[in-house]
Design a protein that fits this description.
29% of the residues lie in helices and 29% in strands. With 301 residues, the protein is of the alpha/beta class.
């Protein structure tokens, strides 16, 4: 039994992308989306060092989310990457990069004590960040569809903006439980859904996604939001023969692949992701089935 378990563990390790492959994919994405590849290479050396930042602007995006603009220039942070953020006296928390122009922006939802402290920061307050970290989204084709659930729409707005600046045709679907939890629309054509029908189409994002995939040809669907929502998105994309990429974020502690806390099977969200091919995610037996809490316990969705 021990030998069999050891072989299974070794097989999982072999299935993970090599660091050089990950670096090459990131560089190709940087080049295709107009980023300076040399900046991306330098970020791999400095991204684990903390940066002291100040909040220079704060906007309440909806009933739950604060959009914080920091006095940090991070032009090498690509759509789909994240930073570890914290304030004195609290743990680090992963936060998706919401924008880098005019400077680093984080869309922070009040989901727990730590994120509440971050979201409650005022102009002039200090926040520490470490990054950019993780694997970004990578470009596929010339027509993209963004599908975001709740505050998961924030990094997709950034991707949509970069895509459109590079001549990509972009449409977006943004869903939320109600009007008060909707994120601001992104560039290009936007579709809105709410579970209670208080804004846009009544229902979840699938109410708009399926008709769009039936009536139009998209090269890739990019999705970020609740994991079960992303699983449904990946499944319908596979059914229609459309590529998909998801941003899968598990409970993270280190953000650099050391602790293994964010593992989804043999895949680590912090270094192998958060961005992942939709069909690869569907092949992972843990995806959309269970997640882990801060103690590492498996919790079923």
């Amino acid at each position: 039994m021990k030998t069999s378990a050891k072989k299974t563990k070794e097989k999982k390790r072999e299935a993970r992308p090599e660091p050089r492959q990950m670096e090459n994919a990131a560089l190709e994405s940087a080049d295709a989306l107009g980023f300076d590849a040399s900046l991306l290479l330098r970020s791999s050396v400095s991204s684990s060092l903390p940066i002291r930042a100040k909040v220079v602007k704060k906007e309440e995006e909806n009933d739950l989310v604060s959009l914080l603009t920091l006095d940090v220039q991070m032009p090498n942070a690509m759509p789909g990457q994240f930073v570890m953020a914290w304030r004195p006296g609290m743990d680090e928390k992963p936060m998706s990069v919401a924008e880098v122009k005019p400077s680093l922006q984080l869309a922070i939802a009040r989901a727990g004590p730590c994120s509440e402290r971050l979201a409650d920061a005022k102009v002039g307050d200090t926040i520490y960040v470490r990054g950019p970290l993780g694997k970004p989204f990578w470009p596929v084709g010339r027509k993209w569809l963004m599908v975001g659930g709740g505050y998961g729409f924030a990094p997709l707005r950034y991707l949509a903006r970069v895509g459109m600046e590079n001549g990509i045709e972009v449409e977006s679907v943004c869903g939320a439980r109600n009007k008060g939890l909707l994120m601001r629309p992104g560039p290009g054509k936007n579709h809105v859904t709410t579970d209670d029908g208080s804004e846009g189409k009544k229902g979840n994002v699938m109410a708009v996604l399926q008709p769009l995939l039936s009536s139009q040809k998209f090269d890739c669907v990019y999705s970020c939001g609740p994991e079960r929502m992303m699983k449904a998105v990946a499944e319908v994309c596979k059914k229609h023969g459309v590529k998909s990429q998801l941003s899968v974020e598990r409970y993270m502690k280190c953000g650099i692949g050391v602790c293994g806390h964010c593992a989804m099977g043999g895949w680590l969200s912090c270094v192998d992701g958060p961005s992942i091919d939709g069909e690869e995610a569907l092949a992972n037996p843990a995806f959309g089935v269970y997640h882990t809490d801060r103690a590492g316990r498996k919790i079923k969705y």
